[in-house]
Amino acid sequence: MKKLMAALSLVAALPTAALAANDNVGGCGVGSLIFKGQSGVVPQILAVTTNGSLGNQTFGITTGTLGCSQDGVVHSNMKTAMFIDGNKDQLARDMSVGSGETLASLSHLLGVETQDQAAFNRLTKDNVARIFTTDSVATEQVILSLREVLATDATLSHYQAAL
Q1: Cα separation, 23 vs 147, whole angstroms
Q2: pLDDT tens, 42-89?
Q3: In whole angstroms, what is the distance from residue 84 CA to residue 154 CA?
Q4: DSSP state of 137
Q5: How far apart are CA 55 and CA 160, in angstroms?
Q6: By CB neighbour count within 10 A (0-12 exposed, 13-18 middle, 19+ buried), where does 62 fall?
Q7: Is the dihedral of CA 71, 72, 77, 78 positive or negative?
Q8: pTM value?
Q9: Three-state secondary structure along 55-87?
Q10: Helix/strand/coil (H/E/C) assignment for every residue in 80-139
Q11: 127-152: per-residue pLDDT in tens?
Q12: Rounded to an integer, what distance in angstroms lies between the CA atom of residue 51 and that of residue 157?
């Protein structure tokens, strides 16, 4: 039983570790306010657990309080992090040529609009060595590097929010 609990804890922590590099501590709600400004896996888990235990995010979204917004945009940073983690090799190959199914899927997850697709593909191709610094680069580093690369382009910089 202890092994099962340890394995479940590890599996639950992996996507959270990818998000720890982001400023997305628990999304919104009381937990995100309590742990605001803190980084790492532990504050992320505690913020999410606090929000889940108190069930306050629905109230925050409905009222626009507790750090929640009512803009209707759902950002799926975890989905993007998990996608990158599971497709790093193919994503690096697609970026190196500036096209491909995996790169197209990533751009879709980031919400890249049709008119920005060519610029996104070109930017990732031109910066693939900066995004994938080694063969065994961590997902968190890929996300941080991609965010930095997107920030350098005036047309594409707003897509870094989806990472």
Answers
A1: 12
A2: 777 777 777 777 777 767 766 767 777 665 555 557 788 889 999 999
A3: 24
A4: -
A5: 29
A6: exposed
A7: positive
A8: 0.57
A9: CCHHHHHHHCCCCCCCCCCCCCHHHHHHHHHHC
A10: HHHHHHHCHHHHHHHHHHCCCHHHHHHHHHHCCCHHHHHHHHHHHHHCHHHHCCCCCCCH
A11: 999 999 998 999 989 999 999 999 99
A12: 30
Q: The tokens of 148 are what?
A: 């930095």
SS3 content of the chain, % helix, strand, coil (to 5): 70, 0, 30
Buried (b) or exposed (e) across 36-60, using 16+ Cβ within 10 A? eeeeeeebbbbbbebbeeeebbeeb
Q: Residues 15, 46, 71, 147: what is their CA dihedral angle, to the nearest 10 degrees?
A: -40
For 148, residues 6+ apart whose C-beta sits below 8 A from its C-beta are 130
Contact by Cβ (8 Å): 88, 139: yes
Q: How many CB atoms lie within 10 A of CB 98?
A: 16
